[in-house]
Every structure is written in C-alpha cells, then in structure tokens.
Amino acid sequence: MNPNGRPREYTPEELEEKIVEYFKFVEEENVKRKLKRFEGEKAKPYTISGICVFLDIHMDTWCAYAKLPEYEECIKRAKVKVMNYVEEGMLTGSLNAIGAIFNLKNNFGWVDKVEISNTNACEQLTPDDIDAKLQAIKMKHSNEAEESEK
Known about the structure:
Elements: H1 12-36, H2 48-55, H3 59-66, H4 69-92, H5 97-108, H6 127-149
C-alpha cells in the first residue's frame, strides 16, 4: 500500500506484466502497419510516454514507481528497452538523429561530454618560498632599473 493511504495502481508483478504487454502491443501494431503497407507509414516506436498511456497512468506515477525498490528493476528494464530502440534507430538512420539525440539527452541522461585536462601542474609554495620568490623579483627589477639608469 502507498504510504499516503491510496493503493497503488499496480503491484510490481502486475506492472511487469503490463509493460511486457505494451511491448507486444507495439510489435503487433508494427506487423499490422507493415501488412497494410501504408505509404510513408513508419513503425510505432517504443516510448516511456507510450507505456504510461498503455498503463493509463501519469508520467509522475511512472517516476514515483521508479523510486520504489520493489518496482526499480522492472522500470529499469523497460527504460533500457526504450533507450535501445532510440539508440539503434539513431545509429541505423531509421529515426531522425536530432530527435533521437534530444530524446536520449532529456529522457535517459545522455550528455555531450567535454573533457579538459590541465597539464600545468600547480606548484605548491610555502610562505617562505613566496617570500624568496618576491625578493628575487624585487632584486631583478632593481637591477634592471639600475642598468637602465646607466
């Protein structure tokens, strides 16, 4: 039971079963589309929002389920299957690459990774070292000033 008192829509087992039904539904829909050979008809994609519509739940409910340990594995498997569909579609060209990248970044945590490495090692100086360097700089400047006066 939900801590708020309202029973959850699905038990973990029921949710798993319904998610499997969703993926079968999409596959069957795609077989129908292929048989009808509609011109320009594209395959029905796997989507998280599609799962929510199929389950008749809100995306907030989906996200709440994902945070519960007893639902976590089921949700992760579904997300991986959807992510795999998008990733393969992007790489094979069956999905618009820009849309697929947008989807992967916004729904699956993908990021453009930029790595910057600093090859300049910072020198660790003690206060005595700093004083010595300052003295050396002052000496250099005073020597240069004396030479320029000559």
